[in-house]
Amino acid sequence: MTYALYYYDSCPFCQMVLRTLPGLNVDVEKRNVQKNPAYRKQQQQATGRTTVPCLLITSEQGKEEWMFESADIMTYLQSL
């Protein structure tokens, strides 16, 4: 599994998730949607939403699952 977090710096909910990442034993790629508009476009095309934070979970077979809500994202990542 690979993980990518779509976020932007001034989002307080994104900051909550970002602060939990260093304490976890999981590698999460950070994708800032304000600094790289291609990330925002990718998220919008896949989900119809631009809401952040958003976690992209990609299985070994390439199946993508998108997760919204900071509390859900933190709970999921902490369970790994």
UniProtKB/TrEMBL annotation:
Pfam families noted in UniProt: Glutaredoxin (PF00462)
Residue stretches making up the GST N-terminal domain: 1-80
Domain of life: Bacteria
Protein's UniProt name: Glutaredoxin
InterPro entries membership: GLR_AS, Glutaredoxin, Glutathione_S-Trfase_N, Thioredoxin-like_sf
